[in-house]
Amino acid sequence: MTSPREIPWTDLRAGARAASERSYAPYSRVHVGACGLTEDGRVVAGSNIENASYGLTLCAECSLVSDLVRTGGGRLVALSVVAGDGEPLAPCGRCRQLLYEHGGRDLLVDGGEGAPTRALGDLLPDAFGPEDVAGRSSR
Ligand code: THU
């Protein structure tokens, strides 16, 4: 459950915009940045990293999850993802699953100006997560 705290959306979006400027996207030229807040108050970020073998591209959220784990892990409580135009972008399906692992259904996702902030549980309903692995294992 997300604690009732004030989410610094302006800072998270600014962090995502800064991260988008560090993106490596020579193929699509869609420069994506992501910035998130952890339960213990850390700020983590990531940028997309493309590859000549297109399918190996790492999304910005993927890089953010790497930053999260590298800097001590813990739970993500809020996240902003923007494209190079500085405006929020909805995480792709694969990234919703990656984020679910580290933030669960209560993770708040920036919806953009005039759009509602959405919980990851609404973006990825009926998600398969760590609890399902534990509960369905035969061993
Ligand atoms: N991209 C992200 O970084 N995150 C998403 O959630 C959607 C897509 C990147 C991948 C690729 O480098 C570029 O955007 C165009 O698809």
Describe the structure.
- By secondary structure, the chain is of the alpha+beta class.
- The chain contains five helices and five strands; from the N terminus they run H-E-E-H-E-H-E-E-H-H.
- Strand 4 and strand 5 form a beta hairpin.
- The longest helix is centred in the first third of the chain and has 12 residues, at 9-20.
- It is globular, with a radius of gyration of 15 Å.
- The model has no long low-confidence stretch (mean pLDDT 95).
- It binds tetrahydrodeoxyuridine.
- Tetrahydrodeoxyuridine binds at residues 25, 28, 30, 32, 48, 50, 57, 59-61, 91-92, 95.
Give a quick summary of the entry.
The protein has helices at residues 9-20, 60-70, 93-103, 120-123, 130-136; strands spanning 33-38, 43-47, 76-82, 108-109, 118-119. With 139 residues, the protein is an alpha+beta fold.
**Which stretches are low in confidence, meaning pLDDT under 50 for 5 or more residues running?**
none
Question: Could you report the average pLDDT, rounded to the nearest whole number?
Answer: 95
Largest sheet: 5 strands, mixed
Query: Total helix count?
Result: 5
What ions, cofactors and ligands are bound?
A: tetrahydrodeoxyuridine
Q: Which class do the helix and strand fractions yield? A: alpha+beta
Helix content: 25-40%
**C-alpha geometry:** globular
Number of strands: 5
**How far is the N terminus from the C terminus?**
30 Å
Report Rg. Answer: 15 Å
Instruction: Provide the succession of SSEs.
Output: HEEHEHEEHH
Q: What fraction of the residues are assigned to beta strands by DSSP?
A: 15-25%
State the strand order across the main sheet. 2-1-3-4-5
